[in-house]
Automatic annotation (TrEMBL):
Keyword field contains Transmembrane helix: yes
Species, as recorded: Hymenobacter gummosus
Family, per entry: Belongs to the autoinducer-2 exporter (AI-2E) (TC 2.A.86) family.
Keyword set includes Signal: no
Keyword annotations from UniProtKB, A to Z: Membrane, Transmembrane, Transmembrane helix
Protein name: AI-2E family transporter
A single GO cellular-component term on record: membrane
Lineage, uppermost ranks: Bacteria, Pseudomonadati, Bacteroidota, Cytophagia, Cytophagales
Transmembrane segments: 12-30, 36-54, 66-88, 144-163, 198-219, 225-249, 261-284, 296-324
Length: 354
C-alpha cells in the first residue's frame, strides 16, 4: 500500500513526533526534574573518583557505585534532613512560646527608645506565624512521600549512570546534534561549572559557616555550634544566607544588654563574612573552573529563579552552554563562508552557511 507522505515529509514528521513525545515526557516528569539534574551533577562530581577506582585500580564497579551512593546519603541527604528537623523544632518552640520573642522586642525597645510595634499586634503576628507553621508542617507531612520519591529517583538514576557509564557517554555523543569537538567543549564547560559551583561553593559555605560560628561563640551567643552549622547551609544562598544567622544573633545580644557583642557580631558579619562570600566565591569560580565572574553572577540569579537551590549549579551551566554554542555557531558559519568563497574562486556553485 502506497504511503501518502514524501520522504521529506516523513522526516519532518518523525522529528516532530520525537520532539512532541520528549516534551510530553518532560511535562510529566517536571516535578521530578531536580532529581535527574542532581543525579547528573553528582555524576560529574564523583566521576574522577569512579575513574580512579574502577578504570585505574580495577575495583568492582558495583561496589564502588554503592559506596558512592552511601557517601551521597551520608554527606548530603542525612545532614539536610537532620538540619531541617532541628530548624523546624526550634521554630515550633518559638511560635508556641511567643513571650520569648516579645521579651526580646521589649528589650530592644528599651535599649533604643524606638517603639517597634504594639504588644497586641506582635502577639497577633506571632499567633499567625504559629498557624502558618502548622500549615507548613501539614504540607511537609503530605509531601514527605514526594521527597522520598525525588531522593530515591536521584539515587536510582545515579546508580545507572555509573553502572552503564560507557553506554551513557556513547549515547550522548550519538544522539546529541553536535560535532565531536563541540561535545568536548560542552563537557569541559560542564566540568568547570560543577567544580566552581559545587566544590567551590561548598568551600565558601564551609568557610562562612565556620567564621559565623566563631563570631557567635566569641560574641557569647547561646549554641554557636548549631547556628554555625545552620550558617553553612544558609551560605549556599548568595548574599542573603549567613546574614539570616548573624543578624538575629546580633539583635539577640543587643536586646540582652550586650551592646559591644552585638556591634562586634554586626561588624564581623558586614566586614568579613559577607566579603568572604563576594570575593572567595568569584575567585574560586575563576580559579577552579576558569569561569568569568559575570557568568557566575548571572547564572546564580537565573538558576535560583527557575530551579531553586539546585540552580546554584544549573544556572551558571546554562549561561556557559549558551556562550559555548554561540561560539560554535560563529565558528561553523565562518568555516562555511570560507568554504563557499573557495568554491566560488574555483568556479563551482556556492553553498549557504550552516
Amino acid at each position: 500500500m502506497e504511503n501518502i507522505y514524501t520522504p521529506r515529509q516523513r522526516h519532518v514528521l518523525l522529528i516532530a513526533s520525537i520532539l512532541g513525545l520528549a516534551g510530553l515526557m518532560l511535562f510529566g516528569l517536571a516535578q521530578y526534574l531536580t532529581a535527574f539534574l542532581a543525579a547528573g551533577i553528582l555524576f560529574v562530581v564523583f566521576r574522577p573518583l569512579w575513574v580512579a577506582l574502577v578504570h585505574r585500580r580495577r575495583w568492582n564497579r558495583q561496589l564502588v557505585t554503592i559506596g558512592i551512593l552511601v557517601l551521597t546519603v551520608v554527606v548530603l541527604v542525612i545532614p539536610f534532613y537532620a538540619l531541617s528537623s532541628m530548624l523546624i523544632n526550634r521554630l515550633i518552640v518559638f511560635v508556641q512560646n511567643p513571650d520569648q520573642v516579645l521579651d526580646v522586642l521589649h528589650r530592644v525597645e528599651q535599649a533604643t527608645g524606638v517603639k517597634l510595634t504594639e504588644q497586641q499586634n506582635a502577639r497577633e503576628l506571632l499567633q499567625q506565624s504559629a498557624g502558618q507553621v502548622s500549615r507548613w508542617l501539614t504540607t511537609l507531612a503530605s509531601s514527605a512521600l514526594n521527597v522520598v520519591l525525588v531522593v530515591g529517583l536521584m539515587l536510582f538514576t545515579l546508580y545507572y549512570l555509573f553502572m552503564q557509564e560507557t553506554y551513557f557517554l556513547i549515547g550522548l555523543r550519538r544522539y546529541l546534534p553536535f560535532r565531536a569537538e563541540t561535545m568536548d567543549e560542552l563537557g569541559e564547560s560542564l566540568k568547570n561549572t560543577v567544580q566552581a559551583n559545587v566544590l567551590g561553593q561548598a568551600l565558601v559555605a564551609l568557610v562562612q559557616g565556620t567564621l559565623t560560628g566563631l563570631t557567635l561563640w566569641i560574641g557569647g551567643v547561646p549554641d554557636p555550634l548549631f547556628w554555625g552549622v545552620v550558617a553553612v547551609f544558609m551560605a549556599f544562598i548568595p548574599m542573603l544566607g549567613t546574614p539570616l544567622v548573624w543578624g538575629p544573633a546580633a539583635l539577640y545580644q543587643f536586646a540582652h544588654g550586650e551592646k559591644a557583642a552585638a556591634i562586634g557580631i554586626l561588624a564581623a558579619g558586614l566586614i568579613v563574612i559577607i566579603n568572604i562570600d563576594n570575593v572567595l566565591r568569584i575567585f574560586l569560580a575563576k580559579r577552579m573552573g576558569d569561569i568569568h565572574p559575570l557568568v557566575t553572577l548571572i547564572g546564580l540569579v537565573l538558576g535560583l529563579e527557575i530551579f531553586g537551590i539546585i540552580g546554584l549549579v544549573v544556572g551558571p551551566l546554562l549561561v556557559s552552554y549558551f556562550l559555548v554554542l554561540m561560539e560554535v555557531f560563529r565558528r561553523e558559519n565562518r568555516a562555511a563562508r570560507v568554504a563557499a568563497a573557495a568554491r566560488e574562486a574555483e568556479g563551482k556553485p556556492g553553498g549557504g552557511a550552516v
